[in-house]
Write a structure and sequence with these properties.
12 helices, 26% helix
């Protein structure tokens, strides 16, 4: 039978995220396992030298990201004397929670990269030593994410190699390679996750990114063959991804492919053999309340991207209501520029707010300014509250920046603005939700009891099951409810609508998303006709 996960939108006060550090602790092998799964120092350096065959030319400039200068850097040692190798040492005591330290390290690293490129040819290859801290990966991404900087410092045809001494993969290295694949975009672009294993107990995992090399896989195959012959380690490609097919204005069609040219027999057999026995509905509901009206003279933040979950925000002052029906306001920015903004893209500037919750969307004050609008406020979400009462946040900008910062409470605003209060009699609570769900089951004539769990955050989880299905309700503690329903096909489709009507009537909840999928055997993808 097909399996599936229950989907929820999270819950206030209950962390749905696991930090990379936590994941590493959970996945870190014992010392015995670690020793058995590592590559000897000699083999590591020799394999790294073999991998440099993927760099375009023999006189290439290779930048090596290392740990702090006081620590060893095996990757740099491996290629020093064979290439023009330039180390980029991690900043001493670098800590991703310290915003100022990260910015200073970014500036210093940018200068070092510029110096490396200015002293000769641009950079052809980049190696991330296994001991490179994650913060250096974040900083390197931020520097290279700017097209002008990348074109000035790095050749169009370049490669990045990130070896790891243990079998377990570093998620941030994989994510960094994906960021580069998104930066370069068009083929030939490749990101490969590979393993060299065998030769006794040794193994080496390596993330590889290549841009501009149309013969990349041929080159990788040669590297794999060479490593196998020398060290008995076989190349095993775990996954491979490419870029977008490039536009060719003079492309000439050599052969026209039709549907008849494809063998669809296996797909036809699978399609006819599928057996849908049930349906899975995921319904998301939220209390839809209008925002509180704004007074003239009120200090606010406005969004520049016309979307309340994207873009950046700038400070200003409300100067008037333009359209009462459209709920739009005239706002004068701090530097005198006047704009018209719909209410849902305005947030009251008031940091005299209660403590923030894990997972809560926030705006944080950055040190950057623009000539037209002034101070920049960026979007993020809260990861945790630190011992020093600052908040650990992760940025969620349009350019997919993924850096984490430690920010004082005074530099944070809750992204969700105040709304007109719901009638107290219609406010959600665990008891009220349980009572409404019991009424729904009674109306549907389902003979079952419900189970309420209130120990998972500020909200609750309510479950119910019967012979032909089950339901799971998740309330986030505020204004959002997720409903997962699995039911046999014999159960009327009106179950979801009965739930929708009851929650709308009692709590003023509106459906914001509704997905329905078949469940069954034979890799089921469609409902019966």
């Amino acid at each position: 039978a097909s399996s599936f996960r229950l989907a929820t939108g999270g819950m206030l006060g209950a962390s749905s995220m696991v930090s990379n550090q936590s994941m590493k602790k959970m996945e870190e092998p014992s010392s015995k396992e670690s020793d058995a799964g590592t590559t000897s120092s000699l083999h590591f350096e020799e394999v790294v030298r073999e991998l440099t065959q993927l760099v375009p030319t023999s006189d290439s400039v290779i930048l090596v990201l290392c740990a702090e200068k006081s620590s060893p850097c095996q990757s740099f040692d491996a290629i020093q004397g064979h290439f023009r190798a330039i180390p980029l040492w991690a900043c001493a005591g670098i800590d991703g929670k310290d915003l100022q330290a990260m910015l200073q390290c970014e500036s210093a690293s940018r200068d070092e990269i510029k110096k490396a490129a200015d002293s000769g040819n641009r950079i052809d290859g980049i190696i991330l030593d296994p001991e490179t801290p994650r913060e250096m990966g974040q900083i390197f991404h931020k520097i290279m994410n700017k097209t002008l900087a990348r074109s000035q410092h790095v050749e169009d045809h370049f490669a990045i190699v990130a070896p790891s001494l243990r079998n377990d993969s570093d998620d941030w290295r994989d994510a960094l390679m994906e960021r580069f694949r998104e930066m370069v975009v068009y083929n030939p672009v490749y990101h490969v996750d590979a393993m060299f294993q065998g030769g006794g107990t040794s193994s080496l995992r390596v993330q590889i990114f290549s841009a501009g090399d149309e013969s990349f896989y041929s080159g990788l195959a040669r590297v794999g063959k060479s490593v196998q012959q020398k060290f008995g380690m076989e190349l095993d490609i775990q996954s491979g991804r490419s870029g977008v097919v490039s536009y060719s204005p003079d492309f000439q069609v050599s052969k026209i492919i039709t549907n008849e040219d494809y063998d669809v027999e296996s797909a036809r057999v699978q399609f006819l053999g599928q057996n849908a026995i049930g349906q899975h509905d995921i319904i998301q509901l939220e209390v839809d309340l209008p925002s509180v009206p704004l007074d003239v003279g009120l200090k606010v933040l406005t969004n520049n991207h016309m979307h309340n979950w994207e873009g950046i925000w700038f400070p200003g002052e409300v100067t008037g209501l333009i359209e009462e029906e459209d709920d739009s306001y005239s706002v004068t920015m701090d530097l005198g520029h006047e704009i018209q903004v719909p209410r849902h893209l305005i947030r009251k500037f008031d940091n005299n707010q209660p403590p923030l919750s894990v997972g809560q969307r926030v705006l944080f004050k950055s040190i950057h300014q623009t000539p037209d609008y002034g101070t920049v406020w960026r979007q993020a979400y809260v990861l945790q509250m630190n011992e020093d009462q600052t908040y650990q946040i992760r940025i969620t900008t349009v350019d997919k920046d993924w850096m984490e910062y430690s920010v004082p409470r005074d530099d944070l605003l809750a992204q969700k603005d105040d709304a007109i209060s719901l009638d107290p009699s219609r406010k959600l609570s665990s008891n009220k939700l349980a009572q409404v769900i019991e009424g729904i089951l009674l109306e549907l004539r389902l003979d079952t009891n419900i189970t309420v769990h209130e120990d998972v955050g500020q909200g609750c989880i309510v479950s119910a099951s019967w012979s032909e299905g089950n339901m799971l309700f998740t309330w986030d503690g505020e204004a959002h409810v997720d409903v997962n329903i699995f039911a046999a096909l014999a159960v009327p489709l009106s179950v979801g609508h009965t739930i929708e009507d009851a929650l709308s009537k009692e709590f003023q909840l509106s459906v914001i998303q509704w997905d329905r999928m078949p469940r069954g055997t034979g890799r089921v993808v469609t409902f019966p006709f």
